[in-house]
Design goal:
The chain is mainly β and 293 residues long. The chain contains 2 helices and 14 strands. The chain has one domain (67-292): monomeric porin ompg (Porin). It has helices spanning 6-17, 56-60; strands spanning 66-77, 84-95, 98-107, 124-134, 137-147, 152-160, 165-173, 180-190, 195-205, 217-227, 232-241, 251-261, 266-275, 283-292. It is globular, with a radius of gyration of 22 Å.
Length: 293
């Protein structure tokens, strides 16, 4: 059986898709902007509020942070293995430099599961992070956990004879597994007003199942992005995710990610990942629609 690591893509590209949004065009990202509706011709400070201070207090007190919700799908194809689809849900709240997120991905086809629950379909990811703003760059440190849900699988067996057909529904319970815990670092460097470079590194403490001890593993991504227009951001990256099995093969792939903002609140993302090894699905297509306010 093949597996695919959608967690890295979901968390990394979800962060990219909501980054670098500057609705009032004052040079301060919306999620960090204490005065998000500053007039275009007013000079602002590092918090995005007028340097003169004449409306800073009134506007800043109204800032309640930013919510982002996203729903999407992954379509995974392979020449030698059965294709799968997944439903992805993502929610994030950011206030100044702090943010907290929750995400879930569930396979909508019946062929992607393992008996030891190493690739569960209904796990929930919780994470919180803090962003350090530096000249032309930003560093985000995050910690989180994967809450593993014990799951069941309904399987139907059919026995056919000359004059009868027996259909026997069977419910299988996937073995329980301990939660994972992870920490990550995102580094983003602005090369110029339109292009950036980003580096992601994560380390996961793998939870063991009732009958298996898993290995801790590292993940990283390296890439660059370019703002083709004020609304369209595109990025290329190399992704690596280690295996939870002692002799397992690491997942490696090349990804092309795009984010398009229709207006201040509505945006869409699309991504394509090509596997560089035989362990993962050959192709993964990801589409999502999001809203922020």
């Amino acid at each position: 059986m093949k597996y695919t690591s959608i967690t890295l893509t979901l968390l990394l590209f979800s962060s990219i898709s909501v980054a670098d949004q500057d609705y009032d065009i004052d040079g301060v990202e919306d999620s960090l902007d204490a005065c998000p509706n500053t007039p275009f011709d007013v000079l602002v400070d590092a918090q995005g509020c007028p340097s003169s201070g004449e409306i800073s207090s009134n506007t800043a007190n109204k800032y309640l942070g930013q919510f982002t919700f996203k729903v999407g799908t992954d379509i995974r194809t392979d020449e030698t293995y059965e294709n799968t689809n997944a439903l992805n849900l993502y929610a994030n709240y950011r206030y100044r430099q702090w943010d907290v997120s929750v995400s879930n991905s569930r396979t909508t086809t019946n062929n992607s599961y393992t008996e030891d629950n190493s690739d569960s379909d209904n796990d929930i990811y919780l994470a919180t992070g803090y962003t350090f703003m530096l000249p032309q760059s930003a560093i985000k440190l995050s910690v989180g956990t994967k809450l593993v849900n014990d799951d069941t699988q309904n399987v139907t067996t059919t026995t056919r004879g000359r004059n009868f057909v027996n259909v026997n529904p069977i419910t299988q319970t996937i073995a329980s597994r301990d939660n994972d815990y992870f920490a990550s670092l995102n580094f983003n460097y602005l090369l110029n007003s339109k292009q950036d470079m980003f580096l992601y590194y994560g380390y996961t403490l793998s939870g063991d199942s009732t009958d298996t001890e898993y290995e801790d593993y590292s993940s990283f991504s390296l890439g660059t992005g370019y703002a083709l227009t004020n609304a369209w951001y595109s990025a290329l990256s190399y992704n690596y995710t280690g295996s939870i099995y002692p002799t397992g093969e690491a997942e490696q792939g090349l990804s092309w990610f795009n984010s398009y903002s229709f207006n201040k609140n509505l945006f869409a993302t699309a991504a394509y990942t090509y596997a560089l090894e035989d362990f993962s699905y050959d192709n993964t297509f990801s589409l999502a629609l999001g809203v922020r306010f």
